[in-house]
Design a protein that fits this description.
mainly alpha, two-stranded antiparallel ribbon
């Protein structure tokens, strides 16, 4: 039986969207946080099929993105699956918009994605724009200058902004600091309870 990889990938994507939807429904996010979540979730969508094809598709050509080049086999599943897990976790943490360790995780993940995929793809496109193309499996290709622009606008700029946003929120903030920053949600009841406990 031949698997339809797009159907499998879209089914996995629906699960990922449902997970993200749980955090969206909690309404703890700001628009900046939503943008960071979107920047990370893009990398989830770009890796819908690779984790499955790595172990299930004997005809799979292998995984290549930026500096990452992996021969067909279980290692593709490990690498691309790790990217999916890390990017999805970062998107969910961004929607919680809570300063602290979660922001450190986002900053680390996005820095790794930028250095291993985003910047190498952009540099490759700028070096040889006519030969450069973005491929999603065998059924979608974006060639030339359009691919270079897409690489910069989708794979680099959002990650840079995400790193800056999360790095500024790596330390837990007091109630006064939260109140002075309109981009952060303020939970007065929790903060008050903390001071009473102290």
């Amino acid at each position: 039986m031949t698997l339809n990889w797009w159907n499998l990938g879209l089914s996995a994507g629906a699960v990922y969207v449902a997970i993200l939807g749980v955090f969206v429904a909690q309404r703890q996010w700001t628009w900046a946080a939503m943008g960071v979540a979107g920047a990370n979730f893009l990398f989830v969508l770009l890796h819908l099929m690779a984790p499955f094809r790595g172990v299930l598709d004997p005809a799979y050509a292998g995984y290549q993105a930026g500096m990452l080049q992996v021969a067909p086999g279980p290692l593709v599943t490990l690498v691309s699956g790790s990217i999916v897990a890390a990017a999805l976790a970062s998107a969910c943490l961004a929607l919680r918009a809570r300063p602290g360790r979660g922001m450190i995780f986002i900053a680390i993940v996005d820095t790794v994605l930028l250095l291993t995929i985003g910047l190498p793809e952009l540099i490759s496109g700028l070096t040889e724009p006519t030969a450069y193309r973005i491929e999603l499996g065998e059924s979608f290709q974006l060639p030339g200058a359009a691919a270079v622009w897409a690489g910069g606008l989708l794979f680099c700029l959002p990650l840079v902004l995400s790193i800056v946003w999360s790095a500024r929120r790596t330390r837990p903030m007091t109630l006064a600091a939260r109140a002075s920053d309109p981009s952060l949600p303020v939970d007065i009841s929790n903060e008050a309870a903390h001071h009473e406990a102290c």
